[in-house]
């Protein structure tokens, strides 16, 4: 039952969809030949920012704007300390305003971009807040915000497939992660195993795409 002042589940869903549509106007994909598209924020006129830690080096960067328009993108700078890379490109998205203060338990709508101009969305919650902190790479971050947000089902399924091939076991992602840790501890999988290193690189890449500061050394 709902009261006149309590939104129904349908109204809540509609509100989330409206937020995704509005916020999606400021989300683009940075592209580089032979690499996966990387979500970026259209921060202000002519500037987009993305994660530095998962940005591959190369030539021929481009961007796919909301709706699918493709434009050239030029790397303006990257800062490993704060995990920020900036690009210059032409777009007509409105500048983003500074976000209001948040609180533990607040819901967060995480938006991303596909390489075809489409967008992705997932719902998370603010799990932890803290004061300004210094990342393991030496950058000063204004505030610690740790989100509880799981990987998408496709990404999780790919991780399960990689872990099953590595360990020869079956089970959930947590089960297979424990199996991998046990295999490494018992010496059945070497730390320099190419398949292990490839799995760890892909897993770290996928985790950082959520932009969770917990992965940067909280």
Number of helices: 4
Number of strands: 12
- Helical coverage, percent range: 25-40%
Number of domains: 2
Separation of termini? 41 Å
Strand content: 25-35%
Main sheet characteristics: 7 strands, antiparallel
Shape: globular
* CATH architecture descriptor of the largest domain: Beta Barrel
Mean pLDDT across the residues is: 85
Q: Which CATH class of the largest domain?
A: Mainly Beta
Could you state the order of secondary-structure elements as H and E? HEEEEEEEEEEEEHHH
Strand order across the largest sheet: 5-4-1-2-3-7-6
Low-confidence stretches: 211-218
Q: Over the alpha carbons, how many angstroms does the gyration radius reach?
A: 19 Å
Would you write up a description of this structure?
This protein has 218 residues and is α+β, with helices and mostly antiparallel strands. Helix content is 27%, strand content 28%. The strands form 3 sheets. The protein has a 7-stranded antiparallel sheet, with no helix packed on it. It has a 3-stranded antiparallel sheet with strand order 8-9-12. A hairpin with a 2-residue loop joins strand 2 and strand 3 (47-50). Mean pLDDT is 85; it is low at 211-218.
């Amino acid at each position: 039952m709902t009261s006149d002042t309590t939104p129904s589940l349908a109204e809540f869903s509609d509100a989330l969809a409206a937020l995704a549509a509005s916020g999606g106007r400021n989300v683009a994909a940075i592209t580089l030949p032979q690499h996966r598209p990387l979500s970026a924020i259209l921060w202000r006129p002519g500037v987009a920012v993305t994660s530095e830690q998962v940005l591959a080096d190369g030539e021929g960067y481009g961007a796919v704007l909301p709706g699918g328009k493709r434009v050239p993108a030029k790397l303006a700078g990257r800062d490993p300390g704060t995990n920020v890379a900036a690009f210059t490109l032409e777009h007509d998205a409105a500048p983003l305003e500074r976000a209001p203060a948040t609180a533990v338990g607040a819901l967060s709508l995480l938006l991303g971009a596909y390489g075809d101009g489409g967008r992705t969305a997932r719902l998370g919650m603010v799990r932890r807040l803290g004061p300004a902190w210094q990342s393991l790479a030496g950058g000063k971050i204004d505030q610690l915000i740790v989100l509880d947000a799981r990987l998408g089902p496709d990404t999780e399924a790919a991780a399960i497939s990689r872990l099953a091939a590595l360990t020869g076991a079956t089970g959930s992602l947590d089960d297979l992660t424990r199996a991998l840790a046990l295999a490494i501890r018992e010496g059945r999988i070497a730390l320099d195993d190419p398949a292990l290193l490839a799995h760890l690189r892909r897993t770290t890449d996928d985790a950082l795409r959520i932009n969770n500061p917990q992965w940067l050394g909280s």
